[in-house]
Each structure stands twice: as structure tokens, then as C-alpha cells.
């Protein structure tokens, strides 16, 4: 461990946090169920609609829909593919960690958030210059 990690752990402890979740993040998802999401088509991933992905995680309980909503810290989505990847039908796209709350809706939102193309998107290393 380096000095930055020690300082980070000190900050967590000062707020009565448990550093074991930082050291071993797998402990966060021990209570969640897993659902694997597979591609329904073949092609290159052209883009992700990140707003839909965000909405799907909120529907799982990872964020608040209203003030009374309970937040589950062990739910979320692990994307296994990125923009530009070639995907065949039935390839693993993501893992959803959940508590059986709105899982079908979250899965549908996630699948609809992935936009496919017949050719690989152009990779832009520099999107623009701010002056």
C-alpha cells in the first residue's frame, strides 16, 4: 500500500466507514443476485445510451427515485463490452447485480441502451479543443 491509500483509509475510518469494502470490493456484492445479459444481435457496439443505463440502475435500487426510496449499495451493472467491440448474438454483454426488484425492466432498458452498427465506429482520440 502507498501513502495515498493509507490517507484514503484514514478518511473512511474518520467517517465510521469499513475499509474492508475498499480492500475487498467483492464483499459489497455478496448479497446480490446475478443476472447475465446476452446480446440479441450481431454487430459493432456503436454507442451506449448512458442515460438509459443510469435509469436502469435506479430501477434496480442503486439510486433514489423519490425521497423515500431505499438505496441498495450492492446492486449495479458491470459492462463487459465497450464501444467498438464486435459482438455476436448470445455474447455476454453485462452482469446485473440485483435483489429481484425490477430486474426485467432493468434488463430491457440496458439492452435498449446499446446501439449497434454494421461497421466499427471511428475512434477519436481528441474530440475537440477548448479555447
Task: Map the helices and strands.
Elements: H1 3-14, H2 20-23, E1 33-38, E2 43-48, H3 50-60, E3 76-79, E4 86-87, E5 92-98, H4 103-113, E6 114-117
Antiparallel strand pairs: 1-5, 2-4, 2-6, 3-5
Helix pairs in contact: 3-4
Keywords:
three-stranded antiparallel beta sheet; 2 domains; 131 residues; alpha+beta; 29% helix; Aldehyde Oxidoreductase, domain 3
Descriptive report:
- The protein is an alpha+beta fold and 131 residues long.
- Helix 3 packs antiparallel against helix 4.
- The chain starts with a helix and ends in a 14-residue tail after the last strand.
- The chain folds into two domains: 1-30, no CATH class; 31-117, Aldehyde Oxidoreductase, domain 3.
- The radius of gyration is 18 Å and the shape is globular.
- It has a three-stranded antiparallel beta sheet with strand order 1-5-3, covered by helices on one side. It has a three-stranded antiparallel beta sheet with strand order 4-2-6.
- Helix content is 29%, strand content 22%.
In whole angstroms, the N-to-C terminal distance is 39 Å
Return the CATH topology of the largest domain.
Aldehyde Oxidoreductase, domain 3
Q: Architecture of the largest domain, according to CATH?
A: Alpha-Beta Complex
Number of strands: 6
Computed CA radius of gyration, to the nearest angstrom: 18 Å
List the secondary-structure elements in sequence, H or E.
HHEEHEEEHE
What's the CATH class of the largest domain, please? Alpha Beta
With strands numbered from the N-terminus, the spatial order across the biggest sheet is 1-5-3
What's the helical proportion of residues? 25-40%
Describe the main β-sheet briefly. 3 strands, antiparallel
Average of per-residue pLDDT values: 90
CATH superfamily of the largest domain: Pyrimidine nucleoside phosphorylase-like, C-terminal domain
